[in-house]
Amino acid sequence: MEYEVVIGLETHVQLKTKTKMFCGCGTTFGAQPNSHVCPVCLGYPGALPSMNKEAIRYTVMAGLMLGCRIAEYAKFDRKNYFYPDSAKNYQITQLDYPLCIGGGVEITGEEGEKKTIRIHHIHLEEDVGKLVHRAGASGVDYNRAGTPLMEIVSEPDMRSPDEAIAYLNALREMMIYAGVSECNLEEGNMRSDVNVSIRPKGQKEYGTKIEIKNMNTFSGIYAALQYEIERQKAALNAGQALRQETRRWDTELFETQVMRSKENADDYRYFPEPDLMPISLTQEQIATWAKDLPEAPAKRRERMIAEYGIPEYDAGVLSADRALADFFEAVAKHCGNGKLASNWVMAEVLALTAKTGVELSASALTAEMLGELLKLLESKTINGPTAKALLPELFEKGGNPADIVKERGLGQVSDTSAIEAFVDAVIEANPKVVAEIKAGKMAAMGFLVGQVMKQSKGKASPQIVQELLKKKF
Prior knowledge:
This protein is an alpha+beta fold. It has helices spanning 53-65, 161-178, 218-237, 283-290, 297-308, 312-319, 322-335, 338-356, 367-378, 384-397, 401-408, 416-429, 431-438, 445-455, 462-472, and strands at residues 3-14, 69-70, 73-74, 77-80, 90-93, 100-101, 104-108, 114-126, 130-134, 137-141, 148-154, 190-200, 210-215, 245-250, 255-261, 271-272, 279-280.
């Protein structure tokens, strides 16, 4: 039988606030276990929560980026459950009045078509602690407990593991662009619960939903979905009934394993949080926060292609990182050549960051410096090799490219007669290479070009060198 896959994701995104959701404890990652805790986030009797306004603002901005409707009224609820990572034995979350409703994320579907994955809602809650397992014992680090956490709940609109990963990549990009989260998977501030079911092709009713809990790598999500889809197909083909349950992904066995039967909302005994007032937002407040929202990545890609005349691939690479895109646009505007700026940022600047391990923002290179260097290159004041030789110095120490070129006499030699003297000298010094060229081995011409550049200490115009050598043969 042919089946259709149905996937929905509940993605948890930690907000990058300096303090926790309901107390003043810090949220710095990697601190000593249980060093960022207090009576509030540990749930001591009589300790009262206090709402983090910045977390509200970030959640609203995330919702606006995703095209959600922002609720003017929202409230917090208690979700009761007993588990070691929750010191209070309940979690403060939002059940029926979340901050953001609707919205969507555009991806490229399996057939290459544009497809929107709808968002059901975004609610704000507090994160739980982290279990640390050792041989013969387990511990709990409550530093993470209480960190502001958005849960972005999609509709079951994805039909393959590829679409799920495309959705997560687009979602991550948008959250980073909005400046609300680092979305660092290694630090666990973006995690997903994966809901997957299958149904006979053409059937409208959904199949039995299986949840794969707390996945924090995209590769793991992809592998878990592939396994679970095949497991469900095999079970149905064998006449076995699937039951609603929560499973986990075993990274060693590469299979999903049962954790528990799936709970329903009633099992958590939700009730309104008695120690927090509801959230009341005005349209004026929402509009004020909306002013801080950047251009969406997809729209920015389209504009960059149209405005700077760069290929779609270049725009995709550059727009994937907001800071890099800002840097590129500043370089392009300074030098007046979008394609040249794109080539240098992608090929030369990114190569330097990879080689040195230094982020662009931590280097001495500014967009104005690179733009000025490219203007010198375009005006033929310097040649390509000289520009490439100067870039690492600007990256490490900074400086004014025009001043450096002038002080060191690095300007390109374009005087044909002066270059011709170098050409004649190189031809005379390399009779064997000259003989090869005359015999038809034109590839040897490159050696002579290199020798002329060496003789001129890199100052000769490569174009003039090549033209003169061609005339000689």
